[in-house]
Amino acid sequence: MLFLPLAGRSQAFVKSADGNFEWRLIGRILMDAAFFRGDSTRLGNGAVLGDVRLGTTVRFLQNWTGKIEAGYAYNKLALKDTYIAYKQGRHTLKAGYYFEPFGTELQVSTAAYRFMNMATTSTVFGDGRKLGLTYQYSREKLVVVGGIFGNTSLENSKEGDAGYTLTGQVIGRPVYEEEKVIHIGLSAHFSNPDKETKEKMVYKGGAPSYVFNKEKNVMLRAEVTQAINEWRTGADVIVLYKRFYFQSECLVNHVNRYGGRNFTGKGVYTQIGCLFGGDNQYRYDRVNSWVDNPKPKNIEVVFRYNYTDLNDEKAEIYGGRAQDITLGANYFFNDYVAAKLNYTSIFTNKHAVNGKENVNFVQARLQLRF
Fold it and tell me: How much is the average pLDDT of 267-273?
């Protein structure tokens, strides 16, 4: 089977007459609205197009696949996943502009999240897309992937050495059956940043929402100066059993600094889900090592607890600490259209950007993916 991580899988490919070339149009539209309970925060109610994507995927000459995609979010148009891959047996080489193989949530479509947005921990300790090269070895119960990435944007506007990132991930599936799956993943990341980034590395995160102003939506912020290099480690587990779902992930970020006052930030989230009303069966997406969206007519009820800590007393850096809980409900009308509803309550400590506060809000989404 060809390696082809796709945002949606319902649309058929358009094939050439000789069968050597196939392509299809892919995309998604996320229409979000959010409403605050109370007015103690600077964030405001509103509605936005949270994420709009349009692109194409191709397969050609038996072993080759590719993808190019553009997206619109936060009033900006940007290039998204753009890569080419070659697969031979269990081995895959992939090169282009995409997320490094670290953690879980950053590597899948936003339309496939169990909640409307990824956990704050993933946002704080995850990186954006980079130019890179990866090698992947895949079996039914084992995936091993490693890669090297540049540390600058596509424009490469910084002067001097751009730096690099080495990353790797191992995923084991000791149980892999139709009605039950156990997934265990370990990730590691080493970064030697460019000179400008070493002078000041910034870790920040806010409320999990597309609706709120991106510049104002900052509740946690840690500035780390005099960096030598950066290490990140992660561990995650996913368990599926018929209509029940469990996922948890822990991420630790460590920055070595001149002078010995190294910085460590950390976070963990746990989320559970249950299906009602449809076929009551969760399914695992083995290509993306993720939980696929349920079949049509399923109602999904989900709960998430997230803890993120950017305080490090030894380094004398206090970026704040936040805990949040989210309750959600999702309904899948068909293979293309779904509706989501989330209620989130966030608690921050005195070192957070706006001090100690409790923020509550409700979000709703109508999403289309094809």
Answer: 98
Give the pLDDT of residue 8: 39
Tokens of 15: 């094939």
Of 19 and 305, more confident: 305
Which pLDDT tens digit goes with each residue over 278-305?
Answer: 899 999 999 899 999 999 999 999 999 9
Paired with 286 in beta bridges are none
- In the structure, what pLDDT confidence band is assigned to residue 9 with cuts at 50, 70 and 90? very low
Q: Write a three-state SS string for the chain.
A: CCCCCCCCCCCCCEECCCCCEEEEEEEEEEEEEEEECCCCCCCCCEEEEEEEEEEEEEEECCCEEEEEEEEEECCEEEEEEEEEEEEECCEEEEEEEECCCCCCHHHCCHHHCCCCCCCHHHHHHCCCCEEEEEEEEECCCEEEEEEEEECCCCCCCCCCCCCEEEEEEEEEEEEECCCEEEEEEEEEEEEECCHHHHHEEEEEECCCCCCCCCCCCCCEEEEEECEEEEEEEEEEEEEEECCEEEEEEEEEEEEEECCCCCEEEEEEEEEEEEEECCCCCCCEECCCCEECCCCCCCEEEEEEEEEEEEEECCCCEEEEEEEEEEEEEEEECCCCEEEEEEEEEEEECCCCCCCCEEEEEEEEEEEEEC
Query: Per-residue pLDDT tens for 57-100?
Result: 999 888 999 999 999 887 788 899 999 999 999 999 999 999 99
